[in-house]
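Subject: design request, 283 residues
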């Protein structure tokens, strides 16, 4: 079995340069394994420039180009398993699509405080909030049309850590027939997660770091009080709770795809920028 790590430092889909910095730092944080080669998706580098909104999507051409390049890199490597290192949530599209084509009977566990089923019509232009909708064949055709192996079905998705929804998100989930449970007070039990996994031979796991409580873990979007996003709120999980969920999943299923997205180390990024301004580092 060949497992690759895909470094996909997309930031334009979230409109925040720290996504790129966080992806590169995360690649160093993950446990080393010489048997898992690292392949890189070349995306536009942070340049401080604002992009245009086209057809309701911020930096539409760059977002689409990134997904296409990711698909090319993955197809060339021909892996059996993929660990995708983001970047923001859009990075799951290419890897999950590839694995959907490789395996039959695949389910998705989406560990996230948010549903990621927004569309360009909903008024929030950043594609990272649209990726699961795209995988389900819902929303902007310019994203979902990039899928090469068919869309996932509504009953092939399980949300873990989901928090309150906007009205348009609730409507999208209802229109698609996706079952969900708002987990404000209690997260899904091990039995609920295992019952879902028993229906499938293989699992894809999407982990958005913002499922963690921003009051306890600060390298997440909602720990930065200057950011408002689409008006959603923070996740509520502790690190211990997240660790338990991940152990439950990996210990009771065949995980062939894992995405880790939206790690935002704001303080480390500011430190990097400070040092970058010193001449001794640039001589």
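Subject: RE: design request

Done. Sequence follows.
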């Amino acid at each position: 079995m060949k497992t690759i790590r895909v470094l996909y430092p997309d930031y334009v889909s979230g409109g925040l340069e720290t996504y790129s910095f966080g992806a590169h730092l995360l690649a160093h944080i993950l446990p080393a394994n010489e048997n898992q080669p690292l392949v890189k998706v070349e995306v536009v580098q942070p340049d401080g420039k604002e992009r245009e909104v086209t057809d309701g999507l911020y930096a539409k051409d760059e977002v689409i180009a990134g997904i296409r390049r990711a698909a090319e890199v993955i197809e060339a490597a021909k892996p059996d398993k993929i660990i995708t290192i983001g970047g923001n949530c859009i990075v799951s599209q290419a890897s999950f699509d590839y694995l959907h084509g490789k395996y039959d009977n695949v389910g998705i566990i989406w560990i996230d405080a948010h549903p990621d089923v927004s569309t360009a019509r909903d008024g929030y232009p950043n594609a990272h909030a649209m990726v699961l909708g795209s995988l389900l064949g819902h929303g902007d055709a310019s994203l979902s049309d990039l899928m090469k192996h068919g869309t996932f079905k509504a009953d092939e998705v399980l949300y873990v850590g989901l928090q309150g929804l906007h009205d348009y998100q609730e409507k999208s989930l209802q229109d698609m027939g996706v079952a969900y449970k708002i987990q404000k007070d209690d997260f899904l039990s091990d039995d609920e997660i295992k019952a879902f996994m028993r229906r499938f031979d293989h699992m894809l796991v999407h982990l958005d770091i913002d499922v963690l409580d921003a009051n306890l873990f600060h390298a997440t979007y909602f720990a930065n009080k200057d950011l408002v996003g689409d008006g959603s709120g923070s996740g509520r999980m502790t690190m211990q709770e997240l660790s338990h969920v991940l152990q439950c999943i990996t210990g009771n299923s065949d995980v062939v795809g894992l995405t880790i997205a939206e790690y935002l180390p704001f303080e480390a990024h500011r430190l990097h920028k400070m040092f970058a301004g010193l001449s001794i580092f640039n001589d």
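The chain is about 35% helix and 15% strand.
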